[in-house]
Amino acid sequence: MSLKSVLRQFRRDRRPQPMRSPVPPAAVALTPLNQPAAPETDYDRDFRAACQALKKFQAPYRLHIGCGKVHFPGWVNVDRDPMSEIVDVSWDLRHSLPIHDGTVEYIFHEHFMEHLTVEEGLALSRECRRMLKPGGILRIGMPDLADVVRQYAENDWRLPWMKKYGYEHIQTRAENINIAFREWEHKWLYDREELHRRLCEAGFETIRDAVRKESTVEALRGLETRDETLLVVEAIK
Asked: Which domains does the chain have, with CATH numbers?
């Protein structure tokens, strides 16, 4: 190769080469600062509000769940209505309450569980057992399916509560029993045997029958406010 050829090759090799495209950086799993956070859900707001409301009380708690229009002083009164002054904690009781295990002394609900499906009622009872401390008591008051059937069988269905709640229009015992099952968003009625069975399924081992407004525990006396509460039990953790 001549000297001239060598110089031409040298100049060609020295020419600037185009830059290669840089390797793209690995994706970073961080939300950009200018991207808004995920919107707060109703559950998030309820959870935050419930935790804040519970700060007014000290464990061990006494829970009155499904309180409706009845307020027990010294108890945590829980219901879904966030606007009611009676309610201390607004909460959908189909969800687990933001309360630690074993921090509740007593739980009471009246004419509430029959408004849940049997699965929801079982889940609620399990949730109550979770929250109760050892030796804690769940007291339940509700209408008695056995009495509803008795009213039909004995044709003894004209009762004082009908006038009280505006049900004087009921004409027959068949209408009465259908109202008992279908009105007021009732979803599952219990007799004593059925309620005991479901509480056992929820994990309670000690279940005792009680009488309306009576209890061996002073704090659980006189709680029932409904005359038609005929089925009362206490389940002990």
From this structure: 42-144+190-236 (3.40.50.150), 147-189 (no CATH)
Tokens 């005792």 label which residue? 208
Q: Give the mean pLDDT of 15-22.
A: 46
Per-residue confidence (pLDDT) for residue 12, from 0 to 100 = 55
Burial of 166 per CB tally in 10 Å (0-12, 13-18, 19+): exposed
Write phi, then psi, for 109 (nearest 5 degrees).
-145, 145
Instruction: Report the residue count for the chain.
Output: 237
> Residue 32's pLDDT is what?
55
- The structure's pTM equals 0.81
- Which tens digit of pLDDT belongs to each residue from 141-183? 999 999 999 999 999 888 877 877 788 888 999 998 998 888 8
Q: 63: burial class by Cβ within 10 Å (0-12, 13-18, 19+)?
A: buried
What is the rounded distance in angstroms from the CA atom of residue 86 to the CA atom of residue 96?
21
Specify the residue for token string 């007021």: 184
